[in-house]
Amino acid sequence: MPGFVEPELARIVEVPAGGNLWVHEIKFDGYRMQLRVEKKRAILLTRKKLDWSHRFPEIVAEARALPDCILDGEVAALDARGISNFGDLQLALSEGKTAGLVYFAFDLLFLSGRDLRGVPLTERKGQLEVLLKERLPHATRIRYVEHYESSGKEMLEAACRMGLEGVISKRADAPYRSGRGNDWTKAKCRGGQEVVIGGWRGDANNLRSLLAGAYRDGQFLYMGRIGTGYNVKSAGELLRKLKPLEIPRPAFANTKDVPRAHDLHWVKPKLVAEVEFGTITAAGILRQASYKGLREDKTAENVVFEAQPAAEEKTAKERKSKTKNPTHRAIAPGNKGLTIAGVPISNPDKALWPETEDSPAVTKADLCGYYDMAADRILPHIAGRPLSVVRAPDGIGGEQFFQRHVLPGLEKYLKPVAVSGEEKPYLSIETAQALVALGQVAVLELHPWGSKRGEPETPERLIFDLDPAPDVVFDTVIAAAKDMRARLIHLGFMPYVKTTGGKGIHVGIAIRGVPRKPVTWDEAKAFARDVCLAMEADEPGRYTTNMSKKVRGGKIFLDFLRNARTATAVAPWSPRARAGATISMPLPWSKLRAGLDPTQFTIPNAPKLLRGADPWADIDKTAVNIEPARKKL
DNA sequence: GGAGAGA
DNA sequence: TCTCTCCAACGCTAG
DNA sequence: CTAGCG
Length: 633
Hints:
Elements: E1 8-13, E2 22-26, E3 31-38, E4 41-46, H1 57-63, E5 69-76, H2 86-95, E6 102-111, E7 114-115, H3 121-135, E8 142-144, H4 152-161, E9 166-171, E10 179-188, E11 194-203, E12 206-216, E13 219-226, H5 232-242, E14 246-247, E15 264-267, E16 272-276, E17 290-294, H6 310-324, E18 339-340, E19 343-344, E20 351-353, E21 362-363, H7 364-382, E22 387-391, E23 401-403, H8 432-440, E24 443-448, E25 451-452, E26 455-459, E27 461-468, H9 474-490, E28 496-499, E29 505-512, H10 521-538, E30 543-544, E31 556-559, E32 586-587, H11 606-609, E33 624-625, H12 626-632
Parallel strand pairs: 1-10, 6-8, 29-33, 30-31
Antiparallel strand pairs: 2-9, 3-4, 3-5, 5-6, 6-7, 9-10, 11-12, 11-15, 11-16, 12-13, 14-15, 16-17, 18-19, 20-21, 22-23, 22-24, 25-26, 27-29, 27-31, 28-29, 28-32
The structure holds 3 DNA strands.
């Protein structure tokens, strides 16, 4: 068996080669590793021949089942979308949590006494695939990397659309040659990104930051500010070029995304700048962007925003198809005038929740039907209280927005609530018909205040939001909810529990003051905070009340801020704008047992779920004076 | 999804 | 008449 | 102090 084989390296190219001489693989963002198995002993070597076996014990353990061989591949961490992510990999390594890492094997250099470096790539990969399939059929930490024969350009475009890092292309017939040659190429999705300057912040002689944009679907979209990377000289040069281009209004189509400031100047989108940046946020805004210089050779129209969140892409597509089919307004044909609870439903067949692996698509008609069916359950929790709603007229893949004021056009169904200190009345409803009307305008989530009915200034219900970090399993959240229940009972309350419709749990209690002295919001919030702080203090390893540290693993975030004036929590029985059309499901404590799967509570399952009594039916009758509990705490 | 502003 | 734009707001925390 | 996040 040969000693350490210097890895074959790829040359950077703008666009991958085409033609059937080439095959293409997804580029993984991880550590290149040579996996060597000799006499049932497996080791992993870096490209510099360092032995990193101890860092990836799970991979090494699985590899021991292989016969003598040398594999080439990449260790990577996959995020929730199945995309390799270098940040996650480093995090996993620094915390020693390597169990989720995967070795992606893409080449076989030696097998059972035979040096395969001289045989063509596709043949090596063929043997590799067979080897892994036969010897490691159940392996989870070692995977074979498929290749594709489509044109390299298409492949790169597809990879970039999916948010992948890029494409590795390889000569199908070439032997394995160590070092950087011409047989392997890599094309990155964003190498040296360019942006168009749409304005600047500062004044005629002072450049504070540049406002960047790019084209998408023919629209010029704001992409964030660039506040670093230029010096006095280049800033002066930029200003000289910007001033003649100044226009009175922004050219950005998404002006609402542009942060407001008094010293903004707009320019015609002509100048192309090269920038470097850390990442792009889900909203498409550059993070840590830095100016590298002007690209005189490029025209603004060619600067298109490629990598984009999947959801955005869908919206754009839907928008396109919508404009193509002329919209039918008054004459609403197609779906023979469906009416639910006396409310005409437009586009009843529109899928607001797309189909998923284990749940059918949920249409607007399904949503309105659910509201009608569940109105008796939902209304007691929202009637007489200000109600914020989440709307998504184009479904959960499209734009979503909160709305708290009265919805124009729906006045006849609503019971607006005046909230002191607010100009416009707040949304509130009292009837099943109004609920269905909300469904008609694509209200997917209901978030009421925790106030007493008809008294926005008096808190009556506290919600403790147990929000687990991504790596916390649901059983752990269940245990936390029981812990919280015990504490609240000890304080004299009658706690109720429901799923949030996501990965968390809500524990709710009803509270009251004494006859002449109602509880104030400040008192309610302070009390909720104290309960959570006590819990955190007792078991800091399990709980945190710190919002941002939440990202750092293993703990459950106790969110007491749900209990401030104007704050809301999702209502019992409310659907969620999440995959699968889950609902926030009220449960009797006896049903909250380990193994419970919160994703089973969905709109399609509603008929089943609505059988029997509402576990939260009596919550408002169990209000307890918080004064003794505050003293106890 | 629907209203109002703007083109 | 068609197209675009708006639809919350507040506390926390890191930088 | 503010941008970003939840």
